């Protein structure tokens, strides 16, 4: 499936921002599921491109002149495949799955989550068991957003000794229907590879998904994160489109 994407984030401030630095994880990479055909970032300054410790494409945008609005756009095309439950790591030197067993502030399990995890302990080493655990994470948190569901699932996995990580990206509805973007899902290391779980949609991760970044939790993989001096109150508007 060939997907066209456009994602705009607009920040408005009540007074001038004197200095700001934004960390942008808005550029996908080639994986076994996807190939990036074209991609560009449109920003009010020239960002510095690099990679973070996970191998995600990272751009650092620094503005040192007063502004009252910052607009960041990501536009591109990605060809996706029908691959399901194949190794979904980025190319290059792989990180040890054990890195994704450590707890983070966003993935610490409370007593309720711990009880749910314990009920799956005997099946934690099987794909079917982890799929059931993903379904349980959604059932126990009705109305929660995608990121919250992913964090609950990751917390349960790590309690069971199963490496799990947060994935940010986009998803297109069947036949190019309404988009949900940006989106979040999870990957868990089951037997010998990373398996993907779209918990919010209770579905597999397939050709409608575009993977952008991954990390231990949302803070490692979020599209935009930054700091600023000045500006006062902030208003953010984000609009994304993904169509076949």
Outline the structure in words.
The protein folds into two domains: 2-80 and 223-243, Immunoglobulin-like (Sandwich), CATH 2.60.40; 97-221, C8orf32 fold, CATH 3.10.620. Helix 1 (111-118) crosses helix 3 (146-159) and helix 2 (127-139) packs across helix 3 (146-159). It has 244 residues and is α+β, with helices and mostly antiparallel strands. It has helices at residues 111-118, 127-139, 146-159, 218-221, and strands spanning 2-24, 34-42, 48-51, 57-63, 67-80, 164-171, 180-190, 193-197, 209-215, 224-230, 234-243. Strands 1, 2, 3, 4, 5, 10 and 11 form a seven-stranded antiparallel β-sheet that branches. The protein has a four-stranded antiparallel β-sheet with strand order 8-7-6-9.
Keyword list:
244 residues; alpha+beta; Immunoglobulin-like; C8orf32 fold; 2 domains; seven-stranded antiparallel beta sheet; four-stranded antiparallel beta sheet; 11 strands; 16% helix
User: Tell me, what's the shape?
Assistant: globular
Helix content: 10-25%
User: How many strands, which pairing sense, and closed or not: the largest β-sheet?
Assistant: 7 strands, antiparallel
| SSE topology string | EEEEEHHHEEEEHEE
User: How does CATH name the architecture of the largest domain?
Assistant: Roll
CATH topology of the largest domain: C8orf32 fold
- The total of helices stands at 4
The overall pLDDT average reads 90
């Amino acid at each position: 499936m060939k997907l066209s994407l456009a994602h705009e984030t607009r920040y408005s401030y009540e007074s001038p921002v004197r200095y700001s630095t934004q960390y942008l994880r808005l550029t996908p990479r080639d994986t076994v599921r996807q190939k990036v055909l074209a991609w560009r970032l449109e920003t009010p300054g020239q960002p510095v491109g690099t990679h973070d410790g996970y191998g995600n494409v990272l751009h650092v945008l620094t503005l040192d002149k007063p502004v009252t609005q910052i607009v960041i756009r990501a536009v591109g095309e990605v060809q996706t495949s029908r691959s399901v439950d194949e190794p979904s790591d980025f190319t290059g030197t792989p990180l040890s799955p054990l890195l994704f067993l450590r707890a983070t502030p966003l993935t610490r399990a409370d007593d309720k989550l711990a009880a749910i995890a314990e009920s799956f302990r005997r099946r934690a080493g099987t794909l079917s068991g982890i799929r059931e655990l993903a379904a349980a994470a959604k059932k126990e948190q009705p109305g929660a957003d995608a990121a919250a569901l992913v964090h609950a699932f990751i917390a349960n996995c790590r309690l069971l000794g199963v490496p799990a990580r947060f994935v940010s990206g986009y998803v297109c509805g069947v036949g190019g229907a309404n988009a949900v973007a940006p989106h979040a899902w999870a990957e868990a290391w089951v037997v010998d590879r990373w398996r993907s779980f779209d918990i919010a949609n209770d579905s597999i991760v397939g050709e409608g998904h575009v993977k952008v970044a991954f990390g231990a939790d949302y803070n490692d993989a979020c599209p935009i994160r930054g700091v600023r001096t000045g500006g006062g109150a902030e208003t953010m508007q984000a609009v994304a489109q993904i169509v076949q």
